Amino acid sequence: MGRSVLCESFVEDYLRQLGRQAGVCMGLLIGQPSTGGKDYIVHAIRIPNEETTDDAQKLNATVAAQHALDATRMLPGGMYVLGIFVIHPKNVFQEPALLSSIKFILMSMKATFDANPLLMGTCEELEKSEKLVLHYSPASKAYVCKTVSLAAENPTVLPCDWKSVERLTTWHKLNVYFETDEVYPLKKRSDKEQYDTEANLTECAKKLKGQLMEAKILFDGAPKLGADTVEGVLTMKNQDKFLANVYLPTSAELSENDAKIEQFEGTLKFDGIVSSQIYIHSRCTFSEAERFIVTDIVRSLMSRIQIHCDSLIQAEDTPQDKITLNELPRRIYFPVRNQAGFPVQFCDYLFPEEAVETPLVRIKEILDISVNVRDLNSKVELVPAVKEDERPAEDVWRKPNTEEDFEGKLNLPVVGGLVTLLVLVIALLAYYLMK
């Protein structure tokens, strides 16, 4: 038995509109997989392409793979690029050349996700290396969906059941605020004097992912059975939401074999609070929900790191400061649909110096979603402004190692204590004189 797909009816409306306006085109299918081989499609994105003709789809596989990667950065945990759609007058499954092109595009997308593992763009446990391919014919207005298995070197086409539903499921929202405060060694490039910012930040995210994979996630302060469905437990509790807490593992003791002393030239303090907001379907199990929470946190961190490092402009020979602040962009949310009743939201990232309306064009280009400024929720994560004159000077952080370092310098904690004591004495004298 093949996979089963439930699609929101407004997604098919979007495809029909594309068939009338754009003619031959291709795009991405966004949704959530589940245990038992059932997929839920909540959004479709056309991939812009200027080289489209009436006879064939000339979409560049590199363009499609990059678009899938960019879109994944804007998806919450639990949402994935589940496959592609093709709008074409010919049945793509009966045209060997078109089918071969589609397989190559899917393999390119897989290779791109494999090269960016911390974006967690695939869910092997649920997808089992299968990607959806939906063909829509504008002439007959017929839909044909199949899956392409990428497990083997030669992808195979498998049957799939496609069904459009007005409201395919109830979506439950899980909010988690994850705080990290870790210190990691700062490593330089092997052949250069500079520190590789992206490599060091990526290593932080990689280690954090390892911790999260071993973490315990409690719902309403208690563990849940992995096979239980979220909706079933919520129904019994007569409520519609959970409070989820993530507890990272900590080693109670360190053996002599594990203990070691390392020398490095710097440290990287990786700290902050991540807003994690995921949406799960009504039959989602707690095991799946835990996986989606981990995916959301790691994907969000890696998306910020990539966006931040892409914005850095620094020459190879530019000297680096002893103290460098890498301020990752904050997360903002926006609805997939403006109409009330569909709660799922996607996300983007905003730098402190950027205006709130900055992401609107990017959201349209990547996700083909039209939103207004009032639709953006930009206050979930607030980053305190750090002015240059407020940054600590280098000599404040430098550890004194000679007697000269102490000459002419006040002991600030002692001075602060004396001033406090003096204020207290004055206050007591004033109190007794006024009695």
From TrEMBL:
<keyword id="KW-0812">Transmembrane</keyword>
<dbReference type="GO" id="GO:0016020">
    <property type="term" value="C:membrane"/>
</dbReference>
<feature type="transmembrane region" description="Helical">
    <location>
        <begin position="410"/>
        <end position="433"/>
    </location>
</feature>
<dbReference type="Pfam" id="PF14778">
    <property type="entry name" value="ODR4-like"/>
</dbReference>
<keyword id="KW-1133">Transmembrane helix</keyword>
<protein>
    <recommendedName>
        <fullName>Protein odr-4 homolog</fullName>
    </recommendedName>
</protein>
<keyword id="KW-0472">Membrane</keyword>
<dbReference type="GO" id="GO:0012505">
    <property type="term" value="C:endomembrane system"/>
</dbReference>
<dbReference type="InterPro" id="IPR029454">
    <property type="entry name" value="ODR-4-like"/>
</dbReference>
<comment type="similarity">
    <text>Belongs to the ODR-4 family.</text>
</comment>
<dbReference type="GO" id="GO:0008104">
    <property type="term" value="P:intracellular protein localization"/>
</dbReference>
